[in-house]
Predict the structure.
Amino acid sequence: MADSKREVERKYEATPETRLPDLTRAAGVSAVVHRGLGELDAVYYDTADLRLAADSLTLRRRTGGDDAGWHLKIPVSADVREEIRAPLTDALPPGLGDLLRSRVRRTPVDPVVRILSARDVHHLLDADGALLAEVSIDEVLAERLTEEGHGATAAWTEMEVELADDADPALLDAVERRLRKAGIRPSAAPSKLSRALAETAPGKPRRKEKKEPAPRTAGDHVLAYVRRQVTALVELDPAVRRDLPDSVHRMRVATRRLRSALRTYRKVLDRSVTDPLRDELKWLAAELGVDRDQEVLDARLSSRVAALPGTLVLGPVEARLRLTSVARRTGSRRRVASVLDAERYLTLLDALDGLLADPPLRPDAARAPRDTLPRAVLKDYERLATRVGNALGLPEGAERDTAMHEARKAAKRVRYAAEAARPALGKPAKRFARRMKSVQSVLGDHQDSVVARDALRTLGVQAHGTGESAFTWGLLYGREEATAEARERELPEVWARASRPGPRAALEG
């Protein structure tokens, strides 16, 4: 795959007569060096219905300049985009195409706009001559390439200030102050592509889309929550494919939150429609869990080994742990990649879009959220209370371990239900979710110790079979047993605190 970089830049309106003010008066800038003129030729790609543009993504094939090639830009935050680059080829590189799949699905991407830029470049340097930022004034000519509106053109001048790698973002504010004093104002368009699409659009200029109205009914709130989780799934897909830190975990959480909402709010959304979706979301969460569970286990065992005094680490413990981790994670990474490329996954995304486009609302959806949402949360709470009571009533052993794991899943469901209701119920729902999280944390640490003990036993057997000392693995096993016992002793008190005052009173504030 291509390399990537964080692009931090701001755009400004300009005219052919625009000249740079004295930017050495901006804090930190010691010199402004003219780097000359250049020409850039970029063709931007999208689906016919402009799905990438709708999500503020840009895909282009550019020649000219020192970074010719394919560029995919993914928004991170205001002024910041992740730019992923691939070498210049005639066809879209498969690696970039994979990163688009959650957006475009089976729809091809084709040229939509060609943008020619005559670029006048200046470098801002610090006192040591290090690059702080690049300032360019671009004379832009855009041409529509789609069948509808083909040949329509637009021209304008704009200024870009792009921060150098590792430079202080505060520099952008300092430069902007100088530009504003010179009468240069920020651009209304977030990118060249967005402006080109707007100004070459066939027919009348498109009006700005109206903001979604504030949720009013129970159905509005549940659908808003579902929409946020679906958006998270789609947006996290490229990060998971690139194996970015915590991406699998976040995608799995969005999947679980979505599945939980469809189960909890069955009085709002018809389960005859949502139950098949829940089954598919369960499948996706399980597939993502293979990688995530290994990640959690690796971190836990590594930290346990690192905490031991050197005199208690007998044999090649760290090497065995590292080799086992690499082998398992390599397999799990391949599995996740195959899942995201599967037709089943794309069909699930299509079905979720269909749910939002034509939601199967039940009568309770039209009711006030304070009438409907608390009842659903309380029903999940009652299930949790039953499972906690069952776990606490069992003797130590495998059966109790299983019961505590089932209680953990129920605690997570109640927490997610309360988080979904928070926009409607306010601080009481937030506090209730926090209490359920405390229960979930105790139960979660207990379950992690169960999984860790199983892995440690396997590692000990493997070490013994090769003639290595199994002492350290046995020591860690015993410590995990002690952790599990501590969590079991802690649970009654944590549960009692989380249950006071009663759940209904807690949700009502």
About this structure: The mean pLDDT is 93. The beta strands are 4-14, 31-46, 58-63, 69-77, 80-86, 110-125, 131-144, 153-163. The two ends are 52 Å apart (CA to CA). The CA atoms of residues 264 and 376 lie 6 Å apart.
